[in-house]
Amino acid sequence: MNRLVFITGASSGIGQALAERFYNAGWSVALVARRNAEMTAWAVAQGWQPERWRVYGADVAQTDSIVAAGHACLAEQGVPDAVIANAGVSIGMDTAERADLDVMAQTLAINLQGLAATFHPFIDPMRVRGSGTLTGVASVAAIRGLPGHGAYCASKAGVVSYCESLRGELRGHGIKVVTIVPGYIDTPLTRGNRYAMPFLMQPEVFADRAFAVIEAGASYRVIPWQMGVAAKILRVLPNSLFDRLLDGRPRKARRGE
Fold first, then answer.
1. Which residue in the list 152, 184, 195, 220 is annotated as catalytic?
2. What's the structural domain count of the chain?
3. In a domain, 156, yes or no
4. Catalytic residue at 184?
């Protein structure tokens, strides 16, 4: 019987690349996206075997919506072997602007609350079965706060801490919790960035490496590794030096810019 992976944010970028990588490795896939008609058309265009995939329309920002998608997957395809909470948004913010407080609330709702809600339906069934892997997709932006990027950095730092907490909670139940920390990946999410993106990686290459990490059940991995080294260096820099290094760096574009 084919193993099953449940992936959010599967309609583009990292999520779509991961879906293709898992399918090509022989897995069945549960694809979650708001644009479920487009997602269905894409899967059909790939020539995928109908019995090996399903699409579930859901808004990850709405807890009941993504939880319902999880329950629908359980009913139609069974308990996944792997769940990848990948859906995310990246929008610049300026705390002096009232509208950007709403941007922050939306970012946290999708990137952090939505991640926990994605995992929720599967934890008890995985406990009963005694196996499963829950993967949270964070970002190197979790390592240090970047100017104009407060909402995104806070949400992804939250993902790292949340997954670490969940890993401890599920220890002894046969469930692995994996935190994947991407660097800069060439996706619609990053193409509007107004600053240099070192070690930029194509999504297919990222997906190949992430697949190996998830298969291995590693607890934490930065992809690519070069960005992991850079992030560790940034983490230990004194604040005065870090602030000077980022002085004048272009800010992330705000909504509408």
1. 152
2. 1
3. yes
4. no
